Amino acid sequence: MNVVTTVDPRDGRQRETDLRQTTDAELDSAAAAAIGATQWLADLGRNGRADLLDAVADSLEARRTALVDAAESETGLARTRLDAELTRTSVQFRMFGEVLRDGGYVEAAIDHAADTPLGAAPDVRRMLVPLGPVAVFGASNFPFAFSVPGGDTASALAAGCPVVVKAHPSHPLTSQASAAAIAAAVDGAGGPTGTVVLVYGEEAGRALVRHPAIRAAALTGSLNAARAIQAAIDERPDPIPFYGELSSINPIVVLPAAAAERPDQIAEGLFGSFTGSGGQLCTKPGLAFVPADPGGDRLVAALRDRVASAGGAVLLNERIRDAFVVREAELARAGARVAARPEIAAGDGFAVAPALLEVDLAGLSADVADECFGPLMVLVRYAAVADLDRALGTVPPSLTGSIHLAAEDDRAVVRGLVDRLGASSGRIVFNGYPTGVRVSWAQHHGGPWPSTNSLHTSVGATSIRRFLRPLAWQDAPEWLLPEELRDEFSTIPRRVDGRLRPGPSADPAGR
User: Fold this and answer.
1) C-alpha 1: how far from its chain's center?
2) Whole-model pTM above 0.90?
3) 403: which strand partners?
4) What is the dihedral of CA 135, 229, 466, 252, to 10 degrees?
5) How far is Cα 203 from Cα 209, in angstroms, rounded to an integer?
6) Low-confidence ranges of the chain (pLDDT < 50)
7) How far is 190 from 153, CA to CA, in rounded Å?
8) Radius of gyration of the chain (CA)
9) Which residues have a Cβ under 8 Å from the Cβ of 61 and sit 6 or more positions away?
10) Pick the catalytic residue: 245, 328, 358, 371?
11) Quick count: other Cβ atoms within 10 Å of Cβ 179?
12) Where is 59: in which H helix or E strand?
């Protein structure tokens, strides 16, 4: 068996762990255990699973110091960032507990038997039910919130699906410690070990999505990783859904009045947004459209000063560091000139200098408008707002699009930009920055290809929808129906004979 190693990206030091890559036999055992946990999750019911998710959050919080210590040594991310990410992770579990208690997510609908214009119609009742065991691939850039205890795992468990997680090779010890925290909560609830299972190794990941027990897969990662997973899924005799959150450039448009009104403030926000966490966020802005006028010049000068005085950023692993170096060179060959790039001391780790590049609008090409994972942003200087619509057509679809505007901006112009960005992104940000994704009921973290490969979100309450499927019961005896579909049940929102009946928690004032 192959030993799993871990690397500290701050110094490049590699060390062996006590972990081994998962064998085919071990993978079969993990899948069988996940199947065995399916009925236990179903028997818990919505409220029981909500209590389980709260217990997972408590378990993660109780192990905060050890988890953050492990992640810091394996990712090089700042301790304050990791501490905040772990808080977000526990919040995600608690939020899905509230989703379960609310119950509206099951989309319960009842059509009683009736005479209709088409004749006598049967009694039909429908709701969403779990898909079955789910494969989750941990992300490199979020060792907690998008990895073993991340939103994919939380939403799948909430749906009633056991989870087999393929640990990311950049943080195997963090993954192991996170899985142990979840296992402690499951064990405390009397649950089986197959509720959340961890596997290691690239081949195990491919074999996982080919396994007949797996009914869906989710990834936050690169396009290449997504293609490899999809290729493995395509080998199955039966297809399964695959939800990938992938590549995104996240353009920001700064309108002239906004640049003139608050150049320093916007420069500060842009700097933090594209350099925070080493620029290794899926919502990092890679392009910023800035007017070629005095206000834009002041903004760019303020941004250059911040970048020029910045220190190096430690990237997550050697592969990401090497890809960043290659991509920066490609941008230079494509005509992007360096606006600011500090000198940093060479070291043994995976540190790079943040880079601010610049092109004129005429120099914006498909080669420039492509993602660079890491602390790099390209400024695109434009002379006329009217030219932005055509230029934005060069930008690939993204998770987000952002607009900085002022009160005096022409509303027709702003509406046109919103229409353009809305057609090619999943979230539009006004006078803000796309990094920092709120975990909430209204959130949508997705977008057209290549930002994702589906219409679903991977963050927020509705991400649970990925791991559910509709099932209808026709003329079923009352005792056989799920409680959510029985006539006397009224504790969740339901649509009965075409009319929406809110649950008891609904605001009586209709707000």
Assistant:
1) 32
2) yes
3) 253, 430
4) 130
5) 10
6) 508-511
7) 19
8) 25
9) 86, 90
10) 245
11) 20
12) helix 24-62
Q: Which DSSP string corresponds to 98-139? A: HHHHH-GGG--EEE--EEETTEEE--EEEEEEE---EEEE--
* Pair type for strands 351-352 and 313-314: antiparallel
Q: Which residue has the tokens 């997705």?
A: 446
In this prediction, residue 506 carries a pLDDT of 52
Amino acid, res. 354: P
Helix (H, G, I), strand (E, B) or coil at 216: strand
Which DSSP string do the residues of 279-343 spell out, in sequence order?
G--TT---EEEEESSHHHHHHHHHHHHHHHT---EE-SSHHHHHHHHHHHHHHHHTTPEEEE---
Q: How far is CA 325 from CA 315, 319, 481, in A?
A: 11, 10, 58
* Half-sphere exposure of residue 122: CA atoms within 13 angstroms, side-chain side: 9
Nearest to 314 by CA among 362, 338, 356, 348: 348
**Which of 136, 211, 208 minimizes the C-alpha distance to 178?**
136
The count of residues in the chain is 511
Query: Which is nearest to 434 in space by CA: 247, 250, 248?
Result: 250
Which of 251, 302, 261 is CA-nearest to residue 409? 261
d(CA 369, CA 91): 35
Report yes or no: 56 and 182 within 8 Å, Cβ to Cβ. Answer: yes
Antiparallel, parallel or unpaired: β 196-199 and 216-220: unpaired
Query: Tokens 């990895």, residue?
Result: 147
In this prediction, residue 507 carries a pLDDT of 52
Tell me if 358 sits within 8 A of 381, measured CB to CB. yes
Which residues have CB under 8 Å from 446's CB, separation 6+?
245, 399, 426, 452, 454, 455, 456, 457, 458
Instruction: Count other Cβ atoms within 10 Å, centred on residue 3.
Output: 10
Question: Cα(150)–Cα(168) distance, rounded to whole angstroms?
Answer: 12
Cα separation, 154 vs 134, whole angstroms: 11
Q: For residue 324, how many other CB atoms are within 10 A of its CB?
A: 23
pLDDT tens for residues 369-399?
A: 999 999 999 999 999 999 999 999 999 999 9
pLDDT given for residue 508 in this prediction = 44
**Catalytic site includes residue 282:** yes
Catalytic, out of 72, 74, 85, 282: 282
CB 306 within 8 A of CB 268: yes
- In eight-state DSSP terms, residue 13 is E
Closest Cα to residue 3, out of 146, 163, 135, 173? 173
What pLDDT is attached to residue 345?
A: 87
168 SS3 class? coil
Candidates 395, 398, 385; CA nearest to 426 is 398
| 72 in catalytic set | no
Peptide bond into 133 cis (omega under 30): no
